[in-house]
């Protein structure tokens, strides 16, 4: 059925489309979401979230309006994130987005009543909040730069997790008992710095100067110390599991009772290092100078 406009041209009216008529789960569906066009199948729209609005629209329980000239079903919503909704319906994977984008997608998921996607987004946001709380650093790089101008610098027990402290002169600084997870110390001068009992899991000390540093009892699980200068450093009782000491200089270093499980010591210089009672199962030792165990 059509009507006439003022120029006597017929205007096509939306046709009622019943998905039960001659359609199956593989039938193509053309959608216009706020001006953005998508093509999918009935199965995608109905299988993963059977109680959603989209499933109700295209499962045959309701009749929807279709533009007869273009063949699209129009939905008056923002189409910006609808591709993420379709991908969720296809594979069940929550996309990687910023927090603000997640909130926008969450509004759309709530509108379409996609309960699984809502739960998935909330799980990601809660995980990020927990991680942010854990890495809630108390100082910034700028704060650190100001502090190291002082004659004696101590960051004992301070949470500096996630900071970029690369290339700074942090020699003689006392970091004892601090939380230093995922800190970036690459090429920093840390000579004689104290890291006693720190939690520095996953931190980066690539090519850093760590001569005579104290790491007694430190947690350095998964830390990168490749190319670092650790001459005469004290790493007694430290957790060095999964650490990389590739081409590091460990001459005369103290590694008694250190846990070197799965540590990479390839091409490391261990001349004069004390490894007495250290645990270094599976640690690669290719082409490095053998240490003393006396």
Automatic annotation (TrEMBL):
Transmembrane segments: none annotated. Pathway: Protein modification; protein ubiquitination. CDD domains: BTB_POZ_FIP2-like. It comes from the Eukaryota. Residues 27-129 form the BTB domain. One of its GO terms (biological process) is protein homooligomerization. This is FH protein interacting protein FIP2 isoform X3.
């Amino acid at each position: 059925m059509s009507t006439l406009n003022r120029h006597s041209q017929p205007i096509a009216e939306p046709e009622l489309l019943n998905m039960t008529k001659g359609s199956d789960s593989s039938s193509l569906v053309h959608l216009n979401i706020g001006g953005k066009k998508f093509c999918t199948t009935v199965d995608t729209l109905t299988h993963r979230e059977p109680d959603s609005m989209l499933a109700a629209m295209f499962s045959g329980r309701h009749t929807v309006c279709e533009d007869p000239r273009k063949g699209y079903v129009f939905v008056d919503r923002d189409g910006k994130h609808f591709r993420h909704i379709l991908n969720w319906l296809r594979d069940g994977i929550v996309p990687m987005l910023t927090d603000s984008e997640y909130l926008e997608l969450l509004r759309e998921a709530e509108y379409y009543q996609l309960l699984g996607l809502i739960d998935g987004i909330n799980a990601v946001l809660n995980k990020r909040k927990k991680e942010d709380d854990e890495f809630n650093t108390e100082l910034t790089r700028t704060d650190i730069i100001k502090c190291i101008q002082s004659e004696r610098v101590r960051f004992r027990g301070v949470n500096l997790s996630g900071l970029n402290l690369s290339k700074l002169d942090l020699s003689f600084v006392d970091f004892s008992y601090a939380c230093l997870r995922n800190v970036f110390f690459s090429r920093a001068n840390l000579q004689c710095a104290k890291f006693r009992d720190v939690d520095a899991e996953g931190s980066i000390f690539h090519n850093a100067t760590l001569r005579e540093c104290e790491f007694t009892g430190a947690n350095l699980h998964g830390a990168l110390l490749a190319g670092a200068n650790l001459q005469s450093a004290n790493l007694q009782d430290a957790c060095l599991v999964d650490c990389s000491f590739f081409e590091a200089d460990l001459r005369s270093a103290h590694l008694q009772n250190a846990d070197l499980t799965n540590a990479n010591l390839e091409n490391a210089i261990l001349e004069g290092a004390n490894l007495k009672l250290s645990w270094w199962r599976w640690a690669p030792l290719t082409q490095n100078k053998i240490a003393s165990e006396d």
